[in-house]
Amino acid sequence: MFDFLKPKPKEPIPLYECLVTDMHCHLLPGVDDGCRGCDDTIACLQDMHKVGFSKVICTPHYQYPRFPNEEKDILELYDLVKRDIRKMDIVHGIELVGVAGEYRIDSGFANRMDENKFLLVDGKYLLVELSLHQQAIGIEDYLFKLQMMNYEVILAHPERYPYFSSRSPHYSRLKDMGILFQANILSLSGFYGEQPRQKAFEMIEDGWVELLGTDTHNTVYTHALMESTHDKRIQKLMEKYGHKFLNSQLTKPEAPKKKF
């Protein structure tokens, strides 16, 4: 009743158009805590296009034992979802251009390194994450070993790890090693709380962040993403730094897929 008195939500603006590609999201249905079905995937893609994205690289979780995904299965699902979306012809202006993984450095990670079957962002970058709750031991050793295996490593959402400050000596060492940092856009809007928000702004302004990602899991995330386009502080940040992020370079044709 009296819904006409409620202010209408503002239409999103294509604030993130300069990024071109979202390189961190969980749109493959049913494999982790992201989209539940293909309808969710389609809804998220449509919302992401409204804020400016035209290309998407899916990065499902690889986390032991919670998400024991296998690369072969993920590749098959990606091909199936991409084919079905194309067949339905209801998503326009944005497309799936690749599939990689977000690999948790956990108790099962050493085995993954031995198997060496990683799916890479743009066929080049290995996206890794840490525990959001407890600092793991030996992270720098793992990352160094990955570099020795000729991987270019991206650390996902460093602003979200509560045990490290935005100017942590640990992060400084990682930057000295050549580790790339990817911040979540929704961290900038306060979606995860005030501490990640302030850390994300500080790290970007300090020049420590090379990539931005939506980390979209479902339409709750994309609705927040659309709202974020009206945040004045984010608008100013995108105006100043948007062209510096590497996202727009992740637009090459899909790299040949490994056979597992």
Description:
The model has no long low-confidence stretch (mean pLDDT 94). The protein is an alpha/beta fold. The chain is 36% helix and 13% strand. It has a six-stranded parallel beta sheet with strand order 3-5-6-7-8-9. A three-stranded parallel beta sheet has the order 1-2-4, with helices on one face.
Q: N- to C-terminal separation?
A: 57 Å
The quaternary organization reads as single chain
Class by SSE composition: alpha/beta
- The proportion of strand residues reads 5-15%
List low-pLDDT spans: none
Query: Could you please say which CATH topology applies here?
Result: TIM Barrel
Domain module tally: 1
Please write out the topology.
Blueprint: E1 21-22, H1 38-50, E2 55-58, E3 61-62, H2 71-88, E4 95-99, E5 102-104, H3 109-115, E6 125-129, H4 139-148, E7 152-156, H5 169-177, E8 180-184, H6 185-188, H7 194-205, E9 211-213, H8 219-228, H9 232-241
Parallel strand pairs: 1-2, 2-4, 3-5, 5-6, 6-7, 7-8, 8-9
Helix pairs in contact: 1-8
Q: In summary, what is this structure?
A:
By secondary structure, the protein is of the alpha/beta class. About 35% of the residues lie in helices and about 15% in strands.
